[in-house]
Design a protein that fits this description.
- The protein has 2 domains: about 1-225, no CATH class; about 235-455, no CATH class.
- The chain has 16 helices and no strands.
- The chain has helices spanning about 5-35, 40-60, 65-75, 80-105, 110-115, 120-150, 150-175, 180-220, 230-265, 270-285, 295-310, 315-350, 360, 365-380, 385-405, 415-435.
- The radius of gyration is 23 Å and the shape is globular.
- Residues about 445-455 have low confidence and may be disordered.
């Protein structure tokens, strides 16, 4: 194998194997807990988690992605001093709001549980999530930092240690105590999440202090450029806004789709059944094939930022086009196999084939979802955060509009939501392709520096 490609191949293999382990172990772990704690415990935790994710997005403010890009750029220049300076500023900007919101969640958890969910049982869950917030936010920043340095080992090891630590804690409690209520079960899940995040952050911190920070400090021969916090936030806020839009869109679907189905004449019982088949059975089968390309997408952002500095973008993006072609072909093959053998697979997993009725409307989106998974980090690496924000807003409007138009019709139902997802993913692919790998300014004949190395202008 080409010696130049060998390190990247090793990185992809490390992330692929760890991702495969997390998928398999995570699914076994989830099924075991559902059988022992019941679905109601997961329902209570599921009520609170969308709000918690929103808080995490507010706290991190898109800074981990910005840190990954800027770290990759400065690493390509061998500018260790600037990497350390950007890292310090990013951790400072995240730690302050994370600490504040952690205290708010911890102190006012009971009141917020009654106010937001009208269920006192959510209060203790919010309290534990409040304790987790600071740890989780700093872990996400560390992930962006190591991603920018192209260090897959701490990423893989921390994720595996997190879920193993969480599982070990939960199993130890289940073996020694009897969980008799959904509230206690949900609190146990939240405590396990806290333990897992603690282990994850501790491992990342130790790895940084032993293997990364000393080397960077030794090679930091020049003084870093002093960047104000406003400039760093200006680069990250479009990313935060995009993440917020996607999160709010998911929450809105939870309110909008049941209402639209009710307009179509479905009873509450049928609505719950349809949504369960669509969200918990059909879409997981659609998203599962993406795991093969997730490790590659993790490495693409820093690689794109690095190539933008070295002026090697045309050659790099030509190679990316071959990868996109393979990814699209893979998506077509998997779509055909799911359409052909989906009923048998659904019978094995769910003991019913009801979820496969959505496949004809969802599967056309799969090839485009796979290449979008690769194109998004390319756009981020090129500094096109404003473009991603604008396109995300447009696609959410289109997806919601198609759902609102077709879901209430008895002949469509949730098939209308599936069409909305498919149309939005196809359009997203076309816009991303035009703005990245087929952008006219990235032709080999053009000697133009597309991306400002600071990313803050």
């Amino acid at each position: 194998m080409n010696q130049h490609l060998l390190p990247e191949f090793k990185n992809v293999m490390i992330l692929s194997l760890s991702n495969l382990f997390l998928r398999i172990f995570g699914e076994i772990y989830r099924i075991y807990l559902i059988r022992h704690l019941g679905a109601e415990a997961f329902g209570l935790l599921g009520m609170v988690f969308p709000f918690y994710r929103l808080v995490v997005i507010f706290v991190t403010m898109g800074l981990p992605t910005t840190l990954a890009r800027l770290t990759a750029i400065e690493n390509a220049k061998n500018n260790s001093a600037q990497i350390l300076e950007t890292k310090k500023n990013t951790f400072f900007l995240v730690t302050i709001p994370a600490t504040f919101f952690s205290l708010i969640l911890f102190i006012y958890s009971d009141s917020m549980g009654r106010l937001f969910y009208n269920d006192y049982r959510t209060g203790p869950i919010l309290k534990f999530l409040g304790l987790t917030l600071l740890l989780n936010s700093l872990s996400i920043v560390y992930h962006g930092y190591f991603r920018g340095l192209n260090k897959p080992i701490p990423l893989a090891c921390s994720n595996i240690s997190e879920i193993l630590g969480e599982a070990a804690f939960v199993f130890s409690i289940l073996l020694t105590s009897l969980i008799t209520s959904a509230e206690k079960g949900a609190c146990l899940l939240a405590k396990g999440f806290l333990v897992g995040e603690s282990i994850c952050l501790l491992l990342l911190l130790i790895y940084d202090r032993i293997n990364i920070a000393p080397k960077l400090k030794t090679t930091a021969t020049s003084s870093p450029i002093k960047r104000d916090f406003i400039g760093l936030l200006r680069a990250s806020l479009p990313i935060m806004t995009q993440q917020l839009l996607l999160s709010i869109s998911r929450i809105t679907d939870g309110f909008l789709l049941p209402k639209l189905l009710r307009q179509g004449g479905l009873t509450p019982s049928l609505i719950a059944k349809e949504l369960g088949e669509y969200w918990s059975m059909a879409t997981p089968l659609l998203f599962f094939p993406l795991f093969l390309f997730s490790p590659v997408s993790t490495l693409i952002l820093p690689a794109t930022a690095k190539m933008s500095v070295k002026k090697d973008l045309p050659l790099f993006l030509r190679k990316i086009r071959y990868l996109l072609g393979f990814a699209f072909l893979y998506g077509l093959i998997v779509s055909f196999l799911l359409l052909r053998y989906g009923k048998a697979l659904s019978l094995i997993l769910y003991k019913t084939t009801s979820a496969t009725k959505f496949f004809p409307f969802l599967l056309p989106a799969l090839p485009f979802m796979i290449i979008n998974n690769l194109l998004i980090p390319i756009a981020e690496g090129l500094g096109k955060q404003i473009f991603l924000l604008q396109v995300t807003l447009i696609l959410i409007v289109i997806k919601t509009g198609v759902s609102a138009a077709f879901v209430p019709l008895p002949d469509f139902g949730l098939a209308g939501a599936a069409w909305g997802l498919t149309f939005s993913q196809i359009l997203f692919s076309l816009l991303l392709l035009k703005e990245t790998v087929f952008h006219p300014q990235i032709l080999p004949k053009k000697k133009i520096a597309l991306v400002d190395s600071s990313g803050l202008d």
